[in-house]
Amino acid sequence: MTPFHASPRTRRLLPIAALTLASALALPGCEITDGPADTAPGPVSANSALGAADGLTVKGRAPKTGYERSAFGSAWLDTDRNGCGTRDDILAEQLDDVSRDSDGCKVLSGVLDPDPYTGGRVAFVRGRSKVDIDHLVALSDAWQKGAQKWSDSKRRAFANDPLNLVAADSSANRRKGDGDTATWLPPNKEYRCTYVAGQVAVKKKYGLWVTAAEKDAMTTVLKSCPDRKLPSGGNPTEAGSR
User: Fold this and answer.
1) How far apart are CA 199 and CA 186, in angstroms?
2) Omega before 162 cis (within 30°)?
3) How many CB atoms lie within 10 A of CB 178?
């Protein structure tokens, strides 16, 4: 290769070019970078639903053998001892325009607006209701992921824990069945982070495991809302028989 020899004129211009470049760098807003800015995500908070999902135990689904609804106690017990069954407690809390029977407990009518699963408006009229009280983590799903080993009092607590209960459109709830996050998500996409965060909270509180596919699905949803806090509260994890 022929060596490069700068001409006298070129040698005179080099210091000027260097000075011009230095002046440009000194101007406000002008900088030269080595590459794209670092966009790596920060650490996931242990208090977030995403962080909690990462800590759930992963195992295969156990057989459904022996599962019956009655294994979780009679439906809608008064586990918080307030004189009203759990179903009426949740209806009264989550519906608008609620009217009650003279007993002060039985919810006769109300409106679910919006329904979390569909985003629509659903009227509730006792006896011909289109509103279900759904277990975020279905009882059958829980049975296959640890609950079959629980005491009766823990299963009763689980079935009546407000942390695990949501008023929802009955048609959407029945399409869900006993599905987990890997097999069913609410059609209302705006509710999905809340829905999955609730499932994670329930599974962590009660020590239930998840399948690998379920954990992947949870993580996929929660990555779209990485700062979503893990829900808390609800009832104790042991309940009486009332």
Assistant:
1) 13
2) no
3) 17
Q: What contacts 72, CB < 8 A, 6 or more positions away?
A: 139, 147, 155, 156, 158, 159
Min mean pLDDT across 69-73, 79-83, 161-165, 180-184 is at 79-83
pLDDT digits (tens, 9 = 90+) for 127-164: 999 999 999 999 999 999 999 999 999 999 999 999 99
First to last CA, the chain: 94
Single-letter code of the amino acid located at 111:
V
Q: What is the pLDDT of residues 193-235, one digit of tens each?
A: 999 999 999 999 999 999 999 999 999 999 999 999 999 999 9
* Contacts of 187 by beta carbon, 8 Å cutoff, 6+ apart: 117, 118, 119, 172
Q: Are 234 and 137 in contact (CB under 8 A)?
A: no
| Two tokens, residue 5 | 């020899």
Indicate yes or no: pTM above 0.90. Answer: no
Measured CA to CA in angstroms, residue 46 lies from 105, 106, 171, 242 at distances of 39, 40, 35, 36
